[in-house]
Amino acid sequence: ETGVTQTPRHLVMGMTNKKSLKCEQHLGHNAMYWYKQSAKKPLELMFVYSLEERVENNSVPSRFSPECPNSSHLFLHLHTLQPEDSALYLCASSQDIRGGAADTQYFGPGTRLTVL
Amino acid sequence: EDQVTQSPEALRLQEGESSSLNCSYTVSGLRGLFWYRQDPGKGPEFLFTLYSAGEEKEKERLKATLTKKESFLHITAPKPEDSATYLCAVQAYYGQNFVFGPGTRLSVLP
């Protein structure tokens, strides 16, 4: 599946490191999302971008900083993370349909993040 | 508040043993209900979108149905390769965001 790609696939970092996750979508979509998936918990929405503007920030700690330079690329900048931030980070994209029709999201393979 | 629950939490089936997974939801106006399949360590793979009560969709051994309060994912004669976690999500009419359920972990034994 190459519609939504994420790099790196695995990342191990210390609490004082700074790293970035990258997501790219090849589907011509206008909306992109970051989710966090922890063990035994439902997917948690972190950020939503529509046409490169942030439209939602679900009270995410400031140690996570998103960036959306264009409608095809999305980054998640990480700094001074905590061990409880270890999780699978998923990127998704959608057409951003308005007016009532359902807007299917398509996911990338995820980045498995481990914070030591 | 929009909510999604799924049952059972885990299900073990023998190959060929048909069963159903349940997704119950509470939402103020349904825009769409979505089913995804997720393999360990991978991203969710889209299966179906259902829009209104009474709608049904099929793909190979999977069939999804929708009522006003719940959706079922029926698995007919499953094979070991159907083993995965199945996620359900809803999108409310007034919003863009998805609310996901916790998933059902399905194991199909040969």
In short:
Chain A has no helices and 11 strands. Chain A is mostly beta strands.
Describe this protein's structure.
The complex is a heterodimer of chains A (116) and B (110). Chain A has 116 residues and is mostly beta strands. Chain A has strands at residues 4-7, 10-13, 18-25, 31-37, 44-50, 53-57, 64-70, 73-79, 87-94, 106-107, 111-115. In chain A, strand 5 and strand 6 (53-57) form a beta hairpin. The radius of gyration of chain A is 14 Å and the shape is globular. In chain A, 34% of the residues are buried. The model of chain A has no long low-confidence stretch (mean pLDDT 91). Chain B is mainly beta and 110 residues long. Chain B is built from no helices and 11 strands. Chain B is globular, with a radius of gyration of 13 Å. The A-B interface holds A 1, 4, 6, 31, 40-43, 45, 48, 50, 55-56, 88, 90, 92, 96, 100-110, 112 and B 4, 31-32, 34, 36, 41-46, 49, 51, 87, 89, 91, 93, 96-98, 100-103.
Layout of strands and helices, then pairs:
The complex is a heterodimer of chains A (116) and B (110).
Chain A: E1 4-7, E2 10-13, E3 18-25, E4 31-37, E5 44-50, E6 53-57, E7 64-70, E8 73-79, E9 87-94, E10 106-107, E11 111-115
Parallel strand pairs in A: 2-11
Antiparallel strand pairs in A: 1-3, 3-8, 4-5, 4-9, 5-6, 7-8, 9-10, 9-11
Chain B: E1 3-7, E2 10-14, E3 19-26, E4 30-38, E5 45-50, E6 56-59, E7 62-66, E8 70-75, E9 84-92, E10 98-100, E11 104-109
Parallel strand pairs in B: 2-11
Antiparallel strand pairs in B: 1-3, 3-8, 4-5, 4-9, 6-7, 7-8, 9-10, 9-11
Features:
heterodimer, A: 116 residues, mainly beta, 7-stranded mixed β-sheet, 4-stranded antiparallel β-sheet, 0% helix, 55% strand, B: 5-stranded antiparallel β-sheet, 60% strand
